[in-house]
Specification:
With 154 residues, this protein is an all-alpha fold. It has helices at 13-25, 31-45, 48-60, 65-70, 82-95, 104-111, 116-139. The protein is globular.
Length: 154
């Protein structure tokens, strides 16, 4: 049961969050990579609504069942590129925060695949995904109801 329905959300709240999403999506980062971040973050946070949403978005983008079903065990597979693997590592590190900064090895591995600007946007994308997950954990939107392009403004 939804605690807070879409129409109950303060005016501008989702629009402002979507504006950040749009700025991230207008970078050189691929939408598939961004959706992998979003799905993995939702899995880690146990957000059923967001898992449903990003699974459907990835299916719409042509992602395979094998990769989708293996995302939760990505480290044990060979289905993900080195670039995707370093992003998934960063996603897990930033989602399961510790009191330690991101180590130099992880950061330097990111630099092998991304510019500093892209690393900034990857960090923002992961942070933004965690924000959405936390909102949905409070609001309790009903999983299974998401439709592709439901909230997208672009």
């Amino acid at each position: 049961m939804e605690r807070i329905m879409y129409q109950d959300i303060p005016s501008g709240m989702f629009e402002n969050l979507r504006a950040i999403e749009t700025s991230i999506e207008n970078t050189s980062l691929s939408i598939t990579l961004l959706e992998l971040i979003r799905l993995r973050t939702a899995q880690l946070n146990g957000c059923a609504y967001c898992v449903d949403m990003h699974y459907k978005e990835l299916k719409h983008l042509g992602e395979t069942e094998l990769r989708l079903s293996s995302l939760c065990v990505w480290e044990e597979t060979h289905y993900f590129s080195e670039e995707e693997r370093v992003v998934l590592m960063l996603t897990e590190t930033l989602t399961k925060l510790s009191h330690q900064p991101i180590n130099d090895e992880t950061f330097n591995t990111l630099l092998n695949h991304f510019t500093k600007e892209e690393i900034c946007y990857l960090t923002l994308a992961i942070s933004q995904s965690n924000t959405w997950n936390r909102l949905m954990k409070v609001f309790r939107f009903t999983p299974g109801n998401y439709k592709i392009n439901q909230f997208k403004t672009n």
